[in-house]
Amino acid sequence: MDHGTPPLRSPDIESLETARRVLRLEASALEALAAGLDHRFEEAVRLLATTTGRVVVSGMGKSGHVGRKIAATFASTGTPAQFVHPGEASHGDLGMIIRGDAVLALSNSGETAELGDLVAHARRFGIPLIAIVGRPASTLARHADVALVLPAAQEACPLGLAPTTSTTMQLALGDALAVALLERRGFGPEDFRVFHPGGKLGARLSRVADLMHGPEELPLATPETPMADALVAMTARRFGCLGITDEAGHLIGIITDGDLRRALQPGGALLTRLAGEVMTRQPRSIPADALAAEALRLMNEGGITTLFVVDAERRPAGILHIHDLLRAGVA
Length: 331
What we know:
Distance between the termini: 64 Å
Order of helices and strands: HHEHEHEHEHEHHHHEHEEHHEEHEEH
Helix content: 40-55%
Strand order of the largest sheet: 2-1-3-4-5
Structural class: alpha/beta
Number of helices: 15
Radius of gyration: 30 Å
Number of strands: 12
């Protein structure tokens, strides 16, 4: 028996170890990036925030792919932006970049030849130039108004050749710029919805007013309504509930299927009672300008399927059913 041959290792175990090593290397680089941010980041945010035109993002190769994502993130969070390929810029697309714009150029080496014409164009027309770069003494860093220098970090590629750690830092720094600009502008959920009308995200950012049934469909009664009549009103609207309002029209209670079952217990004498005796007081409700996602949260927390929509005085203005949220793609 050969005692000197090491046991074979599982390829799956080796892959897991590789993955953890890559993630730890990149996480460490991000920590260094965060620790090294200084006044230059603040100056970059100020330049971008005061730009009256668009933020033009550019980069070559992997930096270009990252740049496209950064431009898309800017655009979706309230900062008008577009990506311009540096090669195409030299063949006419420089016309897309005008006074009032700002340029965000990405290059780990800072010596990307294809960026040369774009940098020269920015300098010629006094267009602010921000660089995300890996070398502080590079050509791009020297010509930039603000150079955001990435910390020296080992690429996760074992050959040290494929951009991995460096592009992760570029991407994260782009996110940091976008979020800082978002907060500076006071960009809120309603603004976000304007740029994300489709899909699940757009649905969850819908307002209750967009989905609710209006006042003409409200199932309502007063506390003095006999339960025989209350049942007729309740079943006519098919929401599975009945709102109870006082003389001033304020919502003071609700009758649900659960309330009916409890009132039907032996000795309950349901039909001889009044609505005010059966109702549950102070029901959950929601304002019309609340997000649909908030309505879903209230329904889930309360184990209910319907919410009355009320105004500031708790007067019913509409009603929202879980089916409305399902149809809209919120739930």
